[in-house]
Amino acid sequence: MHKNHQISASVILRNHQVIFNGKVIFETAEDLELLAFLKACYQDLEIDYAKFYKMDLLSKLGFIASEYLAKDQKLTPETALILQNSSGSLETDLNYQASISNENAFASPSVFVYTLPNIVLGELSIRQQLQTENAFFISEKFDASFLIVYLQNLFSTNKANAAICGWLDLDKEGYNVFLSLITQDDKGKALTAENLKENYEQFKTRA
Amino acid sequence: MRQKPAVHIIDDEIIAPLGWGTSANIAQIKQRQTAIKKHKISAENFYYAALFEEEELQQNFKKLSFSNAEDFTKLEKLFLLTVHQLLERNPINLEETVLIISTTKGNVELLENAENSIPEKSKLYSLGKTIQKYFNIKNEPITLSNACISGGLGLSVGKRLLEENAYKNALVLGGDVVSKFTRSGFQLLQAMDSEICKPYDKNRKGINLGEAAAGVLLSTEIQNSTIQIVGEAIANDANHISGPSRRGEGLVKAISSALKEAHLESSAIDYISAHGTATLYNDAMEAQAFGRLNLQQKPLTSYKAHYGHTFGGSALIESILSIKSLQQNLLFPSLGCSEIGVEPPLNIQQNLEEKKLKYALKTASGFGGCNFAMIFKNLMYA
Fold this sequence. Notes:
Chain A is an alpha+beta fold. Chain A has seven helices and eight strands, in the order βββααβαααβαβββα. Chain A has a single domain (6-201), classed as 3-Layer(aba) Sandwich (Peroxisomal Thiolase, Chain A, domain 1). In chain B, a hairpin with a 2-residue loop joins strand 3 and strand 4. In chain B, helix 3 (74-89) crosses helix 4. Chain B is globular. The two termini of chain B are 30 Å apart. Chain A: This is 3-oxoacyl-ACP synthase.
């Protein structure tokens, strides 16, 4: 059904490394704060996008990963965004909760807006001008089989002709990001659950 | 291209402050009732919302054989009751059934007392685990959180999985409860009306909060269904994270794409169950989008002045109500619009009216710039 669709590129953000198609292309010291690591990535990307600074950490993570993913190509507006994680928007939820629990803290509407996991899909849609399917799923573990069935339906019904899919998670323990770009290019790996899972499993520990 | 199996609506359930069970809800709607009331926050602070009476919830929960009430959160109880009702009426094979849960904030109230450890139930996927365990559902549940379109997206996800023959049936649930978390957030956004909300009205001032749960059983194999999902799509505005595109770009795209899948022109639509949150920008955006598609004359309802905005529940509840309109050939009244305040003016359904209906369009839009459209076909239309 989706024989023309390939996993044309993958980006992993783990342990303060950026891994593009299996190679470490940028890294910082592991003891940097996450925000400092993301700002270093932003500088490495040589981009100028003021909205980046307003985003919450989950959106910043998604933004940086997708910038590396789309660095050398223009995405079509018909690129779907289908992401999963296990924590939803928990980090920002906790920040917001702390601000309303503490009488001395300042609760901010702009923090509240980020207490939805799909806000990052909006941020990426705005940046890349993607105007099609979006969905944010919450599951305990990365579920490649589900993604494949879902993408198969989007492509075969012409609701999208490409996709960014993967895992974008952030909690107190840390972050874990894996995004794949699925296109109709002839380069890349076949779009199968096994291949997606295999790409996801790379670089679980720092190389 | 391989023909995809048709996905049918088999049964539905709404549990809301307006009524327990879909029929009770319809009876209330026919009588122009609202569940939105004034609630106290502090001595001088009030807000309008549609909230459950704690006692009624506990009484109903006792009906369940595993009703150890203290083990469950409010939202879990609502979902368990919804699934219980659906499974009692429909003896489906659970081995071939997928559970889909749509919620924006799940059990977020549990974070209130979470000092250092994060309660497992504050993770959204835990809702699925609870339901899976109690009804012995083998397949891994699917949970999604996609702002105000969540309940509608759940139906789309169910349809898509069934079309790919991944399962035979899908139990789609949607719901949220009102917590200090969401209430304070919408207060900060200054997005709440200080009275009952007024969708599409000139003097609309914002939303009311609401809580509810709903469930829909979808199937590709159960016979005797009267409703089929013939088209649906999601589209992003790619414009702003907390405000809609002024011209309704994403909504136009979602509706167009749903019509295309249904092989229909917009003129075929008989009725629209719209989002109609009663915020200035949402309602204005919808009017623009409907106008661009030449849908502005179609009878249109917003149910937000009956239920408040129930977030994860809203698009699912309103889909069920569209289905009831088709099944009963009845247009239900929209509440709160006394003077139209959108351009182009929309044809707000003011009264209960009998009308033969073949196609109903359900739409929703939400934060993150997401838009949802789904078209239901009345198979009994003659």
